[in-house]
DNA sequence: GTCTATAATGGGATAGAC
DNA sequence: GTCTATCCCATTATAGAC
């Protein structure tokens, strides 16, 4: 494959540093593979192979497998969190009935994620799937730590907004509602294909646009089921 | 426990096979470890170490790592599925308003699982967590196959019951509701600790008894949000 | 600073002892 | 039929070439 490397006149240091993008290629490959098979299901060889670089370059650029995993999360985390925070801010300006305002907050949590999954390019799609997988990991595996740091305080502001909107609800029930909502999102974004199988192919969990409004209505109804008062 | 087997006059092939329980010990250890770290996150050495048997015995008794994983699932799958089927049958005998009947079906899906998790002993707890982890695995990883086989047709009967109860709902919306419900359950049973962190320890996702009724009310409300008609 | 060659360990699986 | 000693390869990590 590397045939004809016979005559090499004098290429001094012509393309020294031909790897400004090596680290990015490794990150892209790691993001994609980790999101599909999890931290343990992917080896550095798999990642290096997909990125078409030497195995040990993963080590050179990131230090260890766990550090690489963290780097994958960190690359997009700031934008991810900031974007959700902005969506919440905007939702809080919505006027209307309590149901309308509740749905606005609910939608503000799922829509930025779905938007990035569907229209942010493959990298974002993989990143979101990876987030879902981290959130699903039982207990506090070492590698899941970065996710909690970036995310949990943002969730607090969503819950606070929903508490303000429902002073009549028991505080605990607001927590349960949002917890159930997050659980739905987490599972769905992991793209397990469950709906696809069980509906015999008639509906697809990857039809995220169609899903968002169903989900908003379902969760809003769930709040009513747990005691949210009338408009 | 089986102490005092001293005087055995003529034990021809008496304790040949002193390992009737070796396989069970391996299964128990595998069940526990797989449920915590997934298929890839556990090595046969880990399992053998936890079971206090030689590494290669896992191979002797089960043939391969993947076959062992299947064996773990298969051991309890029949009882698991049968128990859910019975719960559905019983729920369908409930009389009352449509909301009451809907909640009965919803409860019949989560309650048998929670019962086994909480009061079926550690083995069941680990098994349920393992089921959740399989359901969360993206796409069709090889090792996830057994789960789908055992489970999907059972889900069909739940969906059919809910369709019967809601002839006024669009068929697709019933699918979405049940899909959302399953997603919630799946994530929660994986025990991610998300609620525990985000509520500052005030509520625990491991308080399953407290959770069941919240969940039933939430999901029932979700059906209303997606167009289920009045009682 | 960037990459290649190589080490040291842990992985699943097997051949043969009892 | 049950278990032990061993194999070969994949894995992460490092030491040193450019």
Automatic annotation (TrEMBL), chains A, B:
Q: Where is the signal peptide?
A: none
- Report if keyword Transmembrane helix is assigned: no
Q: Where's the DNA-binding part?
A: 43-62
For this UniProt record, the keywords arranged alphabetically read as follows: DNA-binding, Transcription, Transcription regulation
Which InterPro entries does the record associate with it? Homeodomain-like_sf, HTH-type_TetR-like_transc_reg, HTH_TetR, PsrA_TetR_C, Tet_transcr_reg_TetR-rel_C_sf
GO MF terms here are: DNA-binding transcription factor activity; transcription cis-regulatory region binding
The record places domain HTH tetR-type at 20-80
Reading the lineage from the top rank, the first entry is Bacteria
PROSITE patterns xrefs: HTH_TETR_2
State if Transcription is listed as a keyword.
yes
Q: What is the protein named? A: AcrR family transcriptional regulator
Organism source for this protein? Sphingobium jiangsuense
